[in-house]
Amino acid sequence: MKDNLIKLxxxxxxxxxxxxxxxxxxxxxxxxxxEDFAVIMGHSGSGKSTLINILGFLxxxxxxxxxxxxxxxQKQSDNVISELRNRxxxxxxxxxxxxxxxxxxxxxxxxxxxxxxxxDQNLEKDLNQLLDSLGILxxxxxxxxxxSGGQQQRVAIARALINHPSIIIADEPTGALDSQNTQEVMxxxxxxxxTNKVTIIMVTHDDTFANFGNRLFKVxxxxxxxx
Length: 227
Ligand SMILES: Nc1ncnc2c1ncn2[C@@H]1O[C@H](COP(=O)(O)OP(=O)(O)OP(=O)(O)O)[C@@H](O)[C@H]1O
Known about the structure:
Helix content: 25-40%
Keywords: Amino-acid transport, ATP-binding, Nucleotide-binding, Transport
Strand content: 25-35%
Radius of gyration: 18 Å
InterPro entries: AAA+_ATPase, ABC_transporter-like_ATP-bd, ABC_transporter-like_CS, MacB-like_ATP-bd, P-loop_NTPase
Number of strands: 10
Shape: globular
Oligomer: single chain
Number of domains: 1
Structural class: alpha/beta
Largest sheet: 6 strands, mixed
CATH architecture: 3-Layer(aba) Sandwich
CATH topology: Rossmann fold
GO molecular function, one term: ATP binding
CATH class: Alpha Beta
Domain ABC transporter: 6-227
Distance between the termini: 22 Å
Pfam family, one: ABC_tran
Bound molecules: adenosine-5'-triphosphate
């Protein structure tokens, strides 16, 4: 039986351009099940980031309903939403979004603020294992500016995985990478999805990955279609 994780029903999103209300997402309905690997494609400005910001609880201002694991969080406080987001969702962005004044280790530890693992004896071991599996253990005390793009993205991936999220939301994760690193990141996503049963939602412009997942969505001028 399919296990539903995400259910958007008739979601619309507006932005104000001056005094004018512009509709960015138009009546989007979408269901994503646990263990799905969903690829979202669409032209620049079509509304992909707007959509994943809603899916990732980064944006709560929309019309329509969003149920996560069978529950609506639309009326919950910011604290509850932050905790839900930090426990369940790992974000990966095209430009990595690392903190440049923090070391690799410190960057990866950022999401732990919400996880009450400060006194966890296994934390250091977990962190080392994660960095080792991503091939960046020797960079633990380096700063992002001392790393290549591929290594920086691996730090961002480690940061996304440290809390063992049920979902990875990745916005153009390979957009700034060369072909070798792109290949490696995609293989890692495949393993996370197939072996670790992590749900993946990935926005990409790269046609090569259109059929990489089991679900393919296209956003066209704010309208979502499944292909
Ligand atoms: N904060 C904002 N205020 C007003 N308009 C916005 C805001 N954020 C996005 N938009 C507009 O919403 C539309 C969709 O933007 P969005 O970033 O979701 O597109 P996208 O499909 O992710 O594009 P890209 O592939 O270039 O990242 C664009 O026309 C954009 O200008």
